[in-house]
Amino acid sequence: MACHLHPRRCPSTCVPARSLQRPRAGGLSPTTLEGKRFRSLLHGVYMLADQPLTLPIWVDAARLVLPDDAIVHHLTGLHARGVWVGAPWPLRFASSTDRQVRHRVVRMARLQRLPACDGGVAAAGACFAAACAELDLVDAVAAGDWLLHLGRCSYDDLRRAVAAHRGTGAPAARRAVRLVRGGAESSRETLVRLMLALAGLPEPRCNLGVGTAGALIGRGDLVYVEFGLVVEYDGRQHADSAVQWEHDLDRLDDFTASRWRHVRVTAVRLRRPRDVVLRVYEALVAGGYTGPAPTFGPVWVDLFERRTAARRAAQSPRADSWSRPPAAAHGQQCARTRHRRSRA
């Protein structure tokens, strides 16, 4: 279903209600739009009911009701780049106009100067800096690590964007960017690294090659070279795949034969994060570490015990998080439709 009123901004699956004012542009009556063939996304914006809802569709629909200069920003800019942290709703945009936008599904920030953008999405560094206002430290650092791993930006890009950011959350962004590291390949690796570092233990290096002078055993998720220790997070795929399981056992034997200590972290062990840190501390001491023991202050408790790894995973968006409208907004849309039909 195409709309030709605004060909630059209008997606083929969304129809703005204002096209009804020009029958040749849309050719659809209010009765047709309120029927079973269509669904309402935003006030005055419809799409075919049999089309799947995705983040790009929602973004395209929102652009039909936003100022012409609006760009995807903040958390939605991270989600558009495949970084799954923070709440999926509302959709976040930025504009330099004074126009007000009030909708539960869309929130638009007014910026005096818009950041650089690519394809209507603000630069990754600008999205990261803005999103830190609503992310805790662990999720913010995970977002930065993820952006680097996916090649969406460089560390210097992040650092410059944070230095230029003057909005809400600037102090949080500055703290987070100092902890971002290249080399991390999963959010759980970031979580375990921060769990150790924020407890006062030395910070491990990410995904470093481990072995002897004559042979490489493989890459370790988190490596303490000085103390001969490898810390690795094993997800469900390691237990569910027989081939992966046998490979892991071979690597463990090779680590032991090469005098590398090895600590495995699983989702079950992450339910007791303090035990994980103490287990790593004991292995560090066995390798010659003489520094202070870990401490578990209020910030650490908030980040890792009160908000558990399982809770973080449950609250993180997924690719299908936009497959239906948020409950509150959907209820409002249904109520408006019932009201229109009752008047008819």
Q: Could you outline the blueprint of secondary structure elements for this entry?
A:
Blueprint: E1 14-16, H1 30-33, E2 38-42, E3 45-48, H2 55-63, E4 71-72, H3 74-80, E5 91-95, E6 106-110, E7 117-118, E8 121-122, H4 124-131, H5 137-150, H6 155-164, H7 170-179, H8 187-197, E9 205-211, E10 216-224, E11 229-233, H9 236-240, H10 242-257, E12 261-265, H11 273-286, H12 298-306, H13 309-315, H14 327-343
Helix pairs in contact: 3-4, 4-6, 5-7, 5-8, 6-7
Q: Short description, anyone?
A:
The protein is α+β, with helices and mostly antiparallel strands and 344 residues long. The protein has helices at 30-33, 55-63, 74-80, 124-131, 137-150, 155-164, 170-179, 187-197, 236-240, 242-257, 273-286, 298-306, 309-315, 327-343; strands at 14-16, 38-42, 45-48, 71-72, 91-95, 106-110, 117-118, 121-122, 205-211, 216-224, 229-233, 261-265.
